[in-house]
Prior knowledge:
Helices cover 62% and strands 0% of the residues. By secondary structure, it is mainly alpha-helical. Helix 2 runs antiparallel to helix 3 (64-80).
Amino acid sequence: MGDPKKRKKKFETPRYAWRKDTLDAELKILGQYGLRNKHELWRTHAVLSKYRGLARSLLAKTGEEKSLVEEKVLSKLKGLGVIPENGTLDDVLDLSVEDFLERRLQTVVQRLGLAK
Length: 116
């Protein structure tokens, strides 16, 4: 059968969790997008930081490997609907958490008026 895989955290908590401005900003986003808890918000932050870090490293590289990885990253983000069809790596650096949260199923259904 094999051993089960080790579970890894898919989010990173804020460095300063008890700052008033951080708490207020998180609470506002939780209410605006209907997130159940802050773990969902932190998970979205982690996804965003992964793609932004990848874009920063790709901007520093040159060559054939860069173009292959860049094409994969951009096609993934275009498929998610986060960047436009003619998006570039600079668009990836301009992304925010709200861009990812707007593409959640719950948010899309609410915006289309299919939910109460």
